[in-house]
Specification:
- The protein has six helices and four strands, in the order ααβββαβααα.
- It is of the alpha+beta class.
- It has one domain: 2-Layer Sandwich (Nucleotidyltransferase, domain 5).
- Strands 3-2-1-4 form a four-stranded mixed β-sheet, sandwiched between helices.
- It is 36% helix and 14% strand.
Length: 166
């Protein structure tokens, strides 16, 4: 570690490797809400966050564990669950008047077809505009869960219908 009177200690979240402040500043300069997608091994979380000088405000959010109440009986950390979580969060954001956003995947590497982009596909299908490239989105087969097994495609469609009714 550096020493001396001119050494500046980085921000705590930068030291912990949790925040890339250069990327955050770029996202905030867009002037639209951020669609923050966080994927873990077991869950997915999508939040629509608006900047406020006092502190960011969460406008709408959804977590993949909420899918269990809607009839999802599979893992909540897979690609179709991420898609449905993004779809649910976007429906809630539409009710709050959000019609566009910018994607924030945090420190994750933007790998083609990743679960965070399945959540993006759910946001897009719900009608919120997010700048993106079509080649980054996962295939329809993965979003519908055909790689998991039979019957998942029907389950995804049933849950989407339940979300639209609510």
């Amino acid at each position: 570690m550096a020493h001396g009177p001119r050494y500046k200690v980085p921000f705590r979240r930068r030291r912990e490797g949790r925040t890339d402040y250069r990327q955050r500043a770029r996202l905030l300069r867009a002037g639209v809400p951020r669609a923050v997608v966080r994927i873990s091994l077991r869950n997915a979380s999508v939040q629509f966050i608006e900047f406020d000088p006092i502190g960011d405000r969460v406008t709408a959010q959804a977590h993949s564990r909420e899918l269990i109440k809607l009839g999802w009986n599979l893992s909540t950390g897979n690609t179709p669950a991420a898609y449905l979580t993004g779809y649910l969060a976007a429906l809630r954001a539409k009710k709050k008047g959000i019609d566009q956003a910018v994607l924030d995947i945090g420190l994750r590497d933007p790998a083609k077809g990743a679960s965070c982009f399945a959540a993006l596909k759910g946001i897009l299908d719900a009608g919120i505009e997010v700048p993106h490239g079509e080649e980054i989105l996962p295939s329809e087969k993965r979003i519908k869960g055909q790689h998991i097994g039979e019957g998942v495609e029907k389950l995804v469609e049933d849950i989407k219908k339940k979300m639209e009714v609510e």
